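Forwarding these from the shared drive since the link keeps breaking.
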Amino acid sequence: QLQASGGGLVQAGGSLRLSCAASGLSFRSNVMGWFRQAPGREREFVARIWNGGTTIYADSVKSRFTISRDNAKNTVYLQMDSLKAEDTAVYYCAGRKVSSTSYDYWGQGTEVTVSS
């Protein structure tokens, strides 16, 4: 129900835009987030956008990444600029109802590799 795409190989300092298309859920009423998991590490929070558009970011990506959503297209985006080698990970999108305390939906992940 969540299909992530846009990952790939990029040089340090470059940019990528990830997309996550949702189906089968009330996208407009869901909080959407991006997470990532680097090899040998636990999954970590990257960014979140509420249904009203408010955003929050992990300190490690603040000012470099931008999360946005297009409710007409049922899609959430993650624009990643000034990429660093430490951003290398599999990126997952997730969604939850506003009233939920945990994410109800997860995408399959898209791999981002940043070469230094």
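-- next protein --
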Amino acid sequence: QVQFVESGGGLVQPGGSLRLSCAASGINFSIYAMAWYRQAPGKQRELVAGITTGRNTNYADSVKGRFTISRDNAKNTMYLQMNSLKPEDTAVYYCNGKRVIFDAWGQGTQVTVSS
């Protein structure tokens, strides 16, 4: 079955960096546009960044210039490099498809930005 496993989160000070990973299984990863999402306490899940099969990328305005999404189709893995982190980036981060969203949300990885 489809499975996404997110990792790489943690506690970081404002201005710090983290690199998230998303390992996908059960799908032909290379043919899907993929995305990172996040959900902060009391808020709806939002799209943070997306990447197409051709590696075209798009970002939420709030993270543009600070986050970089990438993918390694040979490893069925997607990444999110997060720099210059801000307290408002605190959330649980998830991965899933972008145009096709699978009914298989992982547990996510917690990112906490705090001094």
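Residues 4 and 105 are 7 Å apart (CA to CA). Strands lie at 3-7, 10-12, 18-25, 34-39, 46-51, 57-59, 67-72, 77-82, 91-97, 109-113.

- D.
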